[in-house]
Design a protein that fits this description.
- The complex is a heterodimer of chains A (208) and B (258).
- Chain A is an alpha/beta fold and 208 residues long.
- Chain A is built from seven helices and 14 strands.
- Chain A has an eight-stranded mixed sheet with strand order 2-1-3-4-14-13-12-9, with helices on both faces. Chain A has a four-stranded mixed sheet with strand order 6-5-7-11. A two-stranded antiparallel sheet of chain A has the order 8-10.
- Chain B has an eight-stranded parallel barrel, surrounded by seven helices.
- Chain B has a single domain, classed as Alpha-Beta Barrel (TIM Barrel).
- The chains are: A alpha/beta (208), B alpha/beta (258).
């Protein structure tokens, strides 16, 4: 059972549909016990960082999520969900994240060419790091596969956890992992076959 | 590298895909869910669904089609047509839309863009506009291109982005259905004033029209309907052609394998 955390941020329908399509048992839940009972947890999210991290704490789901992650359960963050797993974000100020993946979220603006639009929105190709080539999350992903992004901040200072990058003026953190905790900046549930293969790979990762 | 996007547009009325030529003479084409799956398999980068029904029953059928599509097709879905309130946003987002396109609703009440962007994020709000030349400037038209609002299109685009629109669909009434190419002059006039992605619509008749469009780096995506529906241009062929001509395209196979 994969539990998709519902903490009032973003649209979870497509994500649930994509897991259904793969034949993977899943539930959207705002209950701590469903995080504890799950074999795997997905932390989704779109929107503003400050708002999302506040809602996650207020929902009472941050503690069980941290606990399950530390106990070795596979956890995957998607888009803003991945960003929350990092240590902090500089999106409109400085905000503490969950600190499960080393690294911080920095703005694309000012770090990329002026003519590149922000948000980084659309399909971009993946370049796998040596770690990414070995990581079970990317086991069905090939170098150059395209995935769908929508974001204005990206993971930096996370070299050791990088699984994949995409070129957008700078190498943008596309996927990262630290032990049993992983995340994708792109939306696998909106990335066609490539995205479905990544979700399938996540469903096959065993906890520690 | 980020790719340019090819987006088929499905106008849905009473559960069927239709497409008017110059907004008149609507012609039934096919089942929307089947078409969505076909386009997904052909390599479409995104799909746009416009609900052009007016009845409550038509609306119910439309949201049902949307849900069925979202269960089978895993690329971004943009939904428009009759979006006039946050409740409308809510309704289509719950049924599988990723982005919601506003047109007349935002003309009537521009604050809708601000409110929707605040609630759902800028990435979710697409401002769609129908533009036509009037006495040497670009005007916003309403009601399928019948009513001149008198609003300046470039100013409206800039205002919409300021309010929080994360993307623009810019449709040229002058070139729509004419199949002689996109309205580059108009598109560039708008692109010069905004920094969000621009989806060009209206005028594509052949593959070369897309190549010309994408020779302008300011344009991010090309949208078309009837040429795809009638298979005058096949998306898989179009993307191969554009890629062979140096345009970054998402191919079904990884770039490295080709």
């Amino acid at each position: 059972m994969i539990t998709i955390i519902d903490y009032g941020v973003g649209n979870l329908f497509s994500l649930s549909c994509s897991l259904d399509y793969l034949g993977l048992e899943n539930q959207i839940s705002k209950k701590a016990e469903d995080l504890r009972r799950a074999d795997r947890i997905i932390l989704p999210g779109v929107g503003a960082y400050a708002d999302a991290i506040r809602k996650l704490w207020e929902s009472g789901l941050a503690e069980p999520l941290l606990e399950e992650a530390r106990n070795g359960k596979p956890v995957m963050g998607i888009c803003l969900g991945m960003q929350l797993l990092f240590e902090k974000s500089y999106e409109y100020g400085e905000h503490e994240g969950l600190g499960l993946i080393p690294g911080v979220m920095s703005p694309l603006k000012g770090r990329i060419r002026e003519d590149l639009k922000v948000p980084h929105m659309g399909w971009n190709s993946l370049r796998l790091t040596p770690e990414g080539k070995r990581h079970p999350l990317m086991k069905y992903t090939r170098e150059g596969d395209y995935v769908y992004f929508v974001h204005s901040y990206y993971g930096t200072d996370c070299e050791e956890s990088l699984l994949a990058t995409s070129e957008y003026g700078v190498p943008v953190t596309a996927a990262a992992a630290c032990r049993n905790v992983m995340g994708t900046q792109f939306h696998p549930e909106k990335s066609g076959e490539t995205g479905l293969r990544i979700l399938k790979a996540f469903s096959e990762i065993e906890g520690r | 590298m980020i790719t340019k996007r090819i987006i088929p547009c499905l106008d849905v009325k009473d559960g069927r895909v239709v497409k008017g030529v110059n907004f008149e003479g609507i012609q039934d084409v096919a089942d929307p869910v089947e078409m969505a799956e076909f386009y997904n398999a052909s390599g479409a980068d995104e799909l746009v669904f416009y609900d052009i029904t007016a009845s409550a029953e038509g609306r119910r059928i439309f949201t049902d089609i949307l849900t069925r599509t979202a269960r089978r097709v895993f690329i971004p879905l943009t939904v428009g047509g009759g979006i006039g309130s946050l409740e409308d946003f809510d309704r289509v987002l719950k049924c599988g839309a990723d982005k919601v396109s506003v047109n007349s609703g935002a003309i009537r009440r521009p604050e809708l863009i601000d409110e929707a962007a605040r609630r759902y994020g800028n990435q979710c709000v697409v401002l769609s506009m129908d533009v036509k030349r009037v006495n040497g400037s670009f005007h916003i038209f309403q009601n399928g291109g019948r009513i001149d609002t008198g609003m300046d299109a470039v100013e409206w685009a800039a205002d919409g982005v300021r309010r929080g629109a994360g993307e623009l669909v810019v449709n040229s009434i002058d070139t729509d259905g004419v199949k002689q190419g996109f309205d580059i002059e108009m598109l560039l006039a708008i692109a010069a004033r905004v920094d969000v992605p621009i989806i060009a619509s209206g005028g594509a008749g052949k593959m070369e029209d897309f190549l010309e469009l994408f020779s302008h780096p300011q344009i991010d995506a090309g949208l078309a309907a009837s040429i795809f529906h009638r298979q005058e241009v096949r998306i898989a062929d179009l993307k191969r052609y554009l890629r062979a001509n140096g345009i970054e395209m998402r191919m079904q196979e990884p770039a490295g394998a080709q």
